[in-house]
UniProtKB/TrEMBL annotation:
It is an enzyme of class 1 (oxidoreductase). CDD domains: HMG-CoA_reductase_classII (cd00644). It comes from Tropicibacter oceani. GO terms for molecular function: hydroxymethylglutaryl-CoA reductase (NADH) activity. The keyword Oxidoreductase applies. It catalyses: (R)-mevalonate + 2 NAD(+) + CoA = (3S)-3-hydroxy-3-methylglutaryl-CoA + 2 NADH + 2 H(+). This is 3-hydroxy-3-methylglutaryl coenzyme A reductase. InterPro entries: HMG_CoA_Rdtase, HMG_CoA_Rdtase_bac-typ, HMG_CoA_Rdtase_cat_sf, HMG_CoA_Rdtase_CS, HMG_CoA_Rdtase_NAD(P)-bd_sf, HMG_CoA_Rdtase_sub-bd_dom_sf. Signal peptide: none annotated. Keywords: NAD, Oxidoreductase. Its EC number is 1.1.1.88.
């Protein structure tokens, strides 16, 4: 068996079939999985079982980011995304990151929260005390709902109770169930537990339970990714590495103080994370909600990453954010391509998947800041977007690359110019 490698010579120049063969070979992926990743993997009857009123399926390009070395392990990362330059940028930064030993990642236990809202209380603080006194009963009751999870070492591990002295409808108490969901995203799991304990919560508090639902602010399920790259590795044709590193730090500084910039900065991070979330059949709305709520947890929305230059003149970046991803549950086991994507990465736990997604998010942020603080985003991004423009203008087959190259060379990446190239005017 060949050794798994994420470095594949000439990958970008291959056609999709050859690229798929090269990826499958490098990852030791079986023929069936390679075929599944080629597309049309979701038959109508399966799709019809996943959501309602199904009329078909909607496809996205699936790319693979190369060069990722994460905690000393090689990863070829599947990314389902419509935006050009995202996969290239991640691969590029992962290549640079190898100069410093790649990415280092870690994560907390997969603890999700479910909220149980209690209203109609005359003594909210007394109700809180009564709930805390009965926490053993509530935890046992919640765990009786999911013996499979408990058998796997997960389950409800504790409760928290918050009192809101005032709200538009008066005081309320909110009980949080803290549940180790193991390899699941966990929404259905914790929602079932919250609904199960609700009558007992009413009995203990004397109030009325309204909402029983997870919180997407998964602040007890946090992943940290970091990277440290010697400045020399960042050298470009016109700038030395120290200048590039300084530019990245200065670009991040604005996202740390200004929500207008932070929103775009964090969108750039999610450019890396969402495609991995989608490719593995996970709930990207949950990941987006968690990320942005976490970015605003201090009361001021800011960057999810920090970039510094350390004492040895190396550029050092850190991303910290919630990551509620599953390798079981939801659509992760229903969609054949999601399973093949996990096998492509050889991922065996939800925690590992979250850590890989975070490394890709950090790489993506670095790529954007590097481009923005040096030559600007348009050169690299528009050169790759040019193929989309060529298609929009009507190019097909070999004409797509020919027209794209021509409009990039003319520094006029527009549909008009592409049409003129197609019509032979240039
Ligand atoms: C686009 C690049 C990578 C070009 O950068 P470049 O310097 O032209 O790249 P290169 O040709 O020297 O290639 C270097 C490596 O990049 C990868 N690479 C390069 N091209 C390809 C390709 N066609 N297909 C596959 N891989 C590619 C590949 O790994 C390659 O290594 P090699 O294979 O040669 O050993 C660079 O300009 C870049 O990183 N730009 C940033 C792009 C970006 O951030 N895109 C996201 C969309 S913009 C956005 O939505 C977010 C934003 C920007 O608003 C966020 C924010 O504001 O913070
Ligand atoms: N606000 C939000 O984000 C919401 C999201 N959702 C959706 O919920 C879905 C995810 O819910 P989720 O609870 O993950 O899915 P599931 O309920 O489908 O799967 C979780 C269940 O899988 C079983 N299981 C088997 N092996 C494992 C393992 N190794 N680790 C953990 N559990 C295991 C467990 O018990 P058992 O076998 O007994 O089932 C567990 O309860 C997504 O589709 C999401 O879109 C739903 C509501 C709200």
């Amino acid at each position: 068996m060949t050794e798994y490698s994420s470095r594949i010579e000439g990958l970008r120049a291959m056609d999709p079939a050859a690229r798929r063969d090269a990826i499958a070979g490098a990852a030791g992926l079986g023929e069936d999985d390679a075929k599944t990743l080629a597309g049309a993997a979701l038959p109508p009857d399966l799709a019809n079982g996943m959501i309602e009123n199904v009329i078909g399926t909607f496809e996205l390009p699936l790319g693979v980011a190369s060069n990722f070395l994460i905690n000393g392990r090689e990863y070829l990362v599947p990314m389902a995304v419509e935006e050009p330059s995202v996969v290239a940028a991640a691969s590029f930064m992962a290549k640079l990151a190898r100069e410093g030993g790649g990415f280092t990642v870690s994560s907390t236990l997969p603890i999700m929260r479910a909220q149980v809202q209690v209203i109609g209380l005359s003594d909210p603080h007394g109700a809180r005390a009564r709930l805390l006194a009965q926490q053993g009963v509530l935890i046992d009751m919640a765990n009786s709902r999911d013996t499979v999870l408990v058998g796997l070492g997960g389950g409800c591990k504790g409760i928290e109770v918050q009192v809101f002295d005032s709200s538009p409808i008066g005081p309320m108490v909110v009980l949080h169930l803290l549940v180790d969901v193991r390899d699941a995203m966990g929404a259905n799991t914790v929602n079932s537990m919250a609904e199960m304990i609700a009558p007992k919560v009413e009995e203990i508090t004397g109030g009325t339970v309204r909402l029983r639902i997870l919180s997407n602010l998964a602040d007890r399920r946090v992943v940290t990714a970091s990277v440290r790259i010697p400045a020399a590795a960042l050298t470009t044709q016109t700038l030395d590495g120290a200048q590039v590193a300084q530019g990245i730090v200065e670009a991040c500084a604005l996202a740390l103080i200004d929500p207008y910039r932070a929103a775009t900065h964090n969108k750039g991070i999610m450019n890396g994370i969402d495609p991995v979330v989608v490719a593995t059949g996970n709930d990207w709305r949950a990941i987006e909600a968690g990320a942005h709520a976490y970015a605003a947890r201090s009361g001021r929305y800011c960057s999810l990453t920090t970039w510094e230059i350390d004492g040895d003149d190396a550029l050092s970046g850190v991303l910290e954010m919630p990551m509620a991803l599953g390798t079981v549950g939801g659509a992760t086991r229903t969609h054949p391509a999601a399973q093949a994507a996990l096998r492509l990465m050889r991922i065996t736990s939800a925690q590992e998947l979250g850590e890989v997604a975070a490394a890709v998010g950090l790489a993506q942020n670095m790529a954007a800041l590097r481009a923005l603080s040096t030559e600007g985003i348009q050169r690299g991004h528009m050169a790759l977007h040019a193929r989309n423009i060529a298609i929009t203008a009507g190019a097909t087959g070999a004409d797509i690359d020919r027209v794209a190259k021509a409009i990039v060379a003319a520094n006029d990446v527009s549909v008009d110019r592409a049409k003129q190239v197609l019509d032979g005017a240039y």
